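Objective 1.3, modelling of assemblies. Example input:
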Amino acid sequence: MERNVYLDHAATTYVKKEVLEEMMPYFTQSFGNPSSIYKLGQENRKAVDLAKERIAKAIGATPSEIYFTAGGCEADNWVIKGIASANQKKGNHIITTSIEHPAIMNSCKYLEKHGFEVTYLGVDEDGKVRLDELKSAIKDTTILISVMFANNEIGTIQPIAEIAKLAKEKGIYFHTDAVQAVGNLRIDVAKIGVDMLSMAGHKFYGPKGIGALYIKKGTRIDNLIHGGGQEQGKRAGTENVPAIVGMGKAIELAYKDFDQHNERIIALREKLINGVMERIPYVKLNGHRTDRLPGNVNFSFRFIEGESLLLMLNMKGISGSSGSACSSGSLDPSHVLLAIGLDHATAHGSLRLTIGDENTEEDIDYVLEVLPTIVARLREMSPLKPMKEDK
Amino acid sequence: MMYSEKVLDHFSNPRNVGEISDANGIGEVGNPKCGDIMKIYLKIENDIIQDVKFQTFGCGAAVATSSMATELIKGKTIQEAMQLTNKAVVEALDGLPPVKLHCSVLAEEAVKEAINNYLKENGRASEAVEICGGCCHSCDKHE
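Predicted structure (tokens):
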């Protein structure tokens, strides 16, 4: 019998039953506008406040430092553009990395067209930022350092606390895109010392279209969305209450039984990594071997192309993703895989499988049964063959 | 992005995959940088393509267009095969998503390159046709 194995949790997750249940009343019964003074409105105000408390508690912030957005992408755009515009008297230089999500990358490129200067730091072969390079990139005009908490493709976790410390010493704002990290890693913004942190509900079993930006009290940042006085006057637009409620519930659940849950996910990840390495030759694990997101597995299979691999896996009921150009519709393979030094052909042959809540040992066994055959089949079809020096 | 039934069929059951040990016309186009490499092996007798095989490194569309191109030229004269267009390959596959059209170019170019090499080997270089090398995005002479 064919199985369905979803292994693309870094793309998005399903909404947990408990999350959906808590959201439901806010669509039909308690539909009021949180800004309204009557009971129906005030119930919604309370619901939004509770969600903020839950999120703040999960990341070590205070509720008034949490601002809801329409997702991680908006939170990232807000940081880059809002910090740039509010601090341009101080300087016009931003430091980020060459492996950021397009939300950061393309916001920075946009600013470059408007007179800002951006340094894109390279990374080592595991995908980590080099602190000495970061240190020497800092200028008097640097107003923001933005480094993602953990990479969406290869899962590598950055030395965030060290980067934050460095930024603090120099009096530069520090932002981290933690979209992949929140719900999967323990985060304490106060302890780490970040000024801003982006997150998205649908990466930790909440709904899509809702995210949040943590902004440390006192941070000088301009608004991205102008309008009414919602979110303490910082982000206009009637609150998406059902989604906000869902995100609050989801983050609370994510940090309940956190250690036990992560232990299980990491065990599945290790089983998958080791199983693939044992069964398939000419394969490279991308990303740091241990400092990686609990559920992230990213391989490059030499001599084959990622989209073909995804299509064949899909025919066997397995959902994954690839950094190959062909799967994204762009001409170049993943900028992350090129940044860690892969050549084009190897980058085209990448496969990302991200493990989540509902995955079981049997799912991993099934992948380990199916994947070697598919890789072998595609290699038979490929004109590229191993040379003596290949490994 | 959606592939047609025919594309998926040719991808999952590609026709004519492999090598021909005594091929007398071999063409390879594309490169790892653009993400597709296609190699076509021809066995030509009296200007007729008796056998054809292919090997492809590439996406679903690249594999499917390779497979379809080999079907379209098998048994044809080399003159007929030279007339193969990427458009004909795409039509035979019931279409390709727009971002994948360049893959069909690769198939057309690989066939022409293989025939060119056959002609050159046989002292008929004057009959060879110009090709673009098949790297997808560099030319705009294909539909």
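The interface with chain B takes residues 303-308, 311-312, 315, 324-327, 329, 331, 333, 343-345, 348, 380-384 of chain A (CB under 8 Å).
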